[in-house]
Design brief:
Layout (H helix, E strand, L loop, with lengths): L5 E10 L2 E11 L4 E5 L6 H8 L7 E6 L6 H4 L2 E4 L11 H12 L6 H7 L15 H13 L5 E5 L7 H16 L3 E6 L2 H7 L2 E6 L2 E7 H6 L1 E8 L2 H8 L5 E7 L2 E6 L5 H9 L5 E8 L2 H13 L1
Parallel strand pairs: 3-7, 3-8, 5-6, 6-7
Antiparallel strand pairs: 1-2, 1-4, 8-9, 10-12, 10-13, 11-12
């Protein structure tokens, strides 16, 4: 079995009385685009700070590529935390040459990286002339210098306009398709849903969920039903053990489900009771609805 790229084992971190990270455990494998999703203050940036050895955990440990972190392991990781910092009066290529100097990397990879992030035509332009989206792409270019195996991005689309968000999203997907493992922290549900293959949901430092994004999206959370007599239909469906809640929305009975259910079975079961449906349809769960469900449960 292939060694995981990252293993996080019961990490905890507090700032005074505030528990920023509470017994967080996670495993990430090669080639995954793993989103760490949570509202502001949930522990995302603290997690990344620990993984990059900027912060020290109070308890727990982590391993990169099956090994405890050291200087060699850290050279296999590229990272973009917070806002990109470059010299405003230097060109894009000169700024990246300085990054290469710091990383001990060769200049001959810079042109290829600039092409990858779509900035090759502006390589000689000064950084101060770049739009926010271009600045963010240059920051990702800087993280890619040194040919890392893992790319860590903290809120990579924060503050960008919709066009730039789409450009960064497509860039991340393209990078991942070329074999890099990407770890992305974000509070934007839509971006995680569109970009990531896996997701861990954090709130108040606690992990509420970890797994494939498609497993969340493919699970049905609600069932829509219509019949001539809605009162009888609601009474009959209230006896189903898989129903957690029912409500009528615009002449449609909406059942909240505890588990996946086959609509054909429901239709047959109701027909056996003399209740014939004019409409039956599953509502697929969005990452947003699941996220809000988890957060609501964590507030309880």
């Amino acid at each position: 079995m292939q060694t995981p790229v990252l293993e996080i084992d019961h990490l905890s971190k507090s700032y005074g009385h505030i528990k920023a990270l509470d017994d967080f455990t996670l495993t990430i494998h090669k080639g995954e685009v793993f989103g760490i999703l949570g509202p502001n203050g949930s522990g995302k940036t603290t997690t990344l700070g620990i993984l990059l050895d900027i912060l020290k955990a109070d308890r727990g440990n982590y391993r990169w590529f099956g090994k405890l972190p050291d200087s060699y392991v850290r050279r296999r990781i590229g990272a973009l935390l917070e806002q990109p910092l470059f010299y405003p009066y230097l060109s894009a290529v000169r700024n990246l040459e300085l990054v290469a100097d710091i990383k001990g990397a060769k200049y001959d990879e810079i042109d290829g990286i600039l092409k990858k992030v779509g900035l090759y035509e502006r390589k000689t332009s000064k950084f101060k002339t770049f739009s926010l989206g271009m600045k963010q792409r240059l920051a990702i270019a800087a993280a890619l210098i040194g040919n890392p195996e893992v790319l860590i991005l903290d809120e990579p689309t924060n503050g960008l306009d919709p066009k730039s968000i789409a450009e960064i999203r497509n860039l991340i997907i393209d990078i991942a398709n070329k074999g890099l493992t990407v770890i992305l922290a974000s509070h934007l549900l839509d971006e995680v849903q569109k970009t990531c293959s896996h997701v861990a949901i954090l709130d108040k430092g606690k992990s509420l969920h970890s797994g494939k994004v498609e497993d969340v999206l493919n699970s049905s959370s609600q069932l829509e039903l219509k019949s001539e007599n809605m009162s009888i239909l609601k009474t009959a469906t209230s006896k189903f053990e898989f129903v957690s809640e029912s409500k009528v929305e615009k002449e449609t009975l909406v059942l909240s489900l505890k588990q996946d259910v086959d609509p054909a079975w429901v239709n047959k079961e109701l027909a056996g009771q003399g209740i014939y449906l004019s409409h039956i349809s599953l509502r697929k769960r969005s990452l947003e609805s699941y996220f809000l469900e988890l957060l609501s449960g964590n507030d309880a």
